[in-house]
From TrEMBL:
Lineage: Bacteria, Bacillati, Actinomycetota, Actinomycetes, Kitasatosporales
Chain positions recorded as FMN binding sites: D59, T96, H146, Y150, S220, S221
Record protein name field: FMN-dependent oxidoreductase (Nitrilotriacetate monooxygenase family)
Listed Pfam families: Bac_luciferase
Keyword terms, alphabetized: Flavoprotein, FMN, Monooxygenase, Oxidoreductase
Length: 442
């Protein structure tokens, strides 16, 4: 790769048997992949052999649906990534963890620990948990309001950063001769008292190898984009068209600049769900195979959950109801509901067609084509100002990821856009990002 050339970033977004809701039903799939550590190790090692920047795990502290039509559970991601850190050596390890249903001290400690045991490969996808069912698992009658969740997340991250900084790099002296292990003056008490948290500090874990775990954000609401502009180093986002992805990209870079940060220090990564065949017809046949295995009732339930309503309000062969097209204010995922409405209106879709389109990627960009066409699309978004890279969301795992690695990556490498080998050992090095300065040093 030529010196100074912009580099494409690729993450392997892993999800049990695959991202398509019917992936577990395929003949070659493992329907019990969710709790099979061997499955996850195989995926992690495949992605690392291909030199992906990182693995990414989504998560939420509640059952997914009712469990009737799709595996509803998942391993806790920091626990799983700790195990995968011992089966890999270079690939980054990004976990989704809620700021709404955790406390800064405990989570800062867990994330710092993962960064230590992985040798500096941890990342935190910061979410504020939009689901009412999640709130019910923590003794709440309903989720906190959208603005309140983001205000709490802002303070949460301020405290977490201070806790990670609470050990200066020179704090440990480990002088056997004098018996002096650490310099107490370099272990900093926070004494934080804010609106949401009161935290004494310091942390009882040494500063992570990366300074902070890589900070990732995935919300695309106005509050989410402002939060990302202030804090995020990578942004996971969902767009169904190049034009909307390019608009988001320009907007987030401008907000980052306005927040006094370098826009090049924020990596924007849309999701792509690729259905890959050696010919277009083979790719379309693969997509049809998935679609025919869907259970419409599951799709209706998921659609109703997004719009905070009941499945009975939808008619499969009619457009979205007028009250939904009017875009009522939601306390959950406003950006995802807007994406679905935009898709439905732009393509004049019925509810049946909408749930079909959401079956593979829940609103992420689905692409059906040959390896060359997939690569050309990735390059067009990357070079056209719509992405710094992609989350690869294989509809079935491991098969879809293996096909991408075998047939698409060589094309990207042939264009000089993706690494042949890892050049660093930490996730920040993969992304070309510096270790943040310690706020207590000097």
């Amino acid at each position: 790769m030529s010196a100074g050339r912009r580099r494409l970033h690729l993450n392997a977004f892993l999800m049990e048997a695959g991202h398509h809701e019917a992936a577990w039903r395929l003949p070659h799939s493992n329907p019990r992949a969710d709790f099979d550590l061997r499955h996850w190790i195989e995926l992690a090692q495949l992605a690392e052999s291909a030199k992906f920047d990182s693995l990414f795990l989504a998560d939420g502290p509640a059952l997914i649906g009712t469990g009737e039509f799709r595996p509803p559970g998942q391993l806790e991601p920091l626990t799983l990534l700790t195990a995968l850190s011992q089966a890999t050596s270079r690939i980054g390890l990004i976990a989704t963890v809620s700021s709404t249903y955790n406390e800064p001290y405990n989570l800062a400690r867990r994330l710092a620990s993962v960064d230590h045991v992985s040798g500096g490969r941890a990342g935190w996808n910061i979410v504020t948990s939009a689901g009412a069912d999640e709130a019910a698992n923590f003794g709440l009658d309903d989720r906190p309001g959208h603005a309140q969740r983001y205000a709490r997340a802002d303070e949460f991250l301020k405290v977490a950063k201070a806790l990670w900084d609470s050990w200066e790099s020179e704090a440990v002296v480990a002088d056997r001769t004098t018996g002096r292990y650490a310099d107490p003056e370099r272990l900093h008490r926070l004494g934080h008292q804010g609106r949401y948290f009161k935290v004494a500090g310091p942390l009882n874990v040494e500063r992570p190898p990366q300074g902070y775990p890589l900070l990732v954000q995935a919300g695309s609401s106005e509050d989410g984009k402002d939060f990302a502009a202030r804090h995020a180093e990578a942004i996971f986002t969902a767009h169904t068209t190049y034009e909307r992805a390019a608009g988001f990209y320009a907007d987030i870079k401008a907000r980052t600049r306005s927040a006094g940060r370098d826009p090049d220090g924020v990596i924007v990564l849309p999701g792509i769900v690729p259905y890959i065949g050696s010919t277009e017809e083979e790719a379309r046949a693969l997509a049809r195979q998935f679609d025919e295995l869907r259970v419409p009732e599951y799709g209706l339930r998921q659609l109703a959950a997004v719009f905070e309503t009941e499945p009975s309000v939808f008619e499969l062969d009619q457009p979205l109801p007028e009250f939904i097209l009017a875009r009522p204010k939601l306390e959950g995922s406003q950006s995802r509901s807007d994406l679905i409405i935009d898709l439905a209106v732009r393509e004049q879709l019925t509810v049946r067609q909408i749930i079909s389109r959401l079956g593979g990627g829940r609103g992420h960009f689905e692409f059906v084509g040959t390896p060359e066409q997939v690569a050309d699309t990735i390059i067009a978004w990357f070079e056209g100002g719509a992405a710094d890279g992609f989350n690869i969301m294989a509809p079935a795992l491991p098969s879809g990821l293996a096909v991408f690695v075998e047939h698409v990556l060589p094309i990207l490498r042939g264009k000089g856009l993706f690494r042949e080998e890892y050049e660093g050992t930490t996730l920040r090095e993969h992304y070309g990002l510096p270790v943040p300065a310690n706020q207590f040093h000097g």
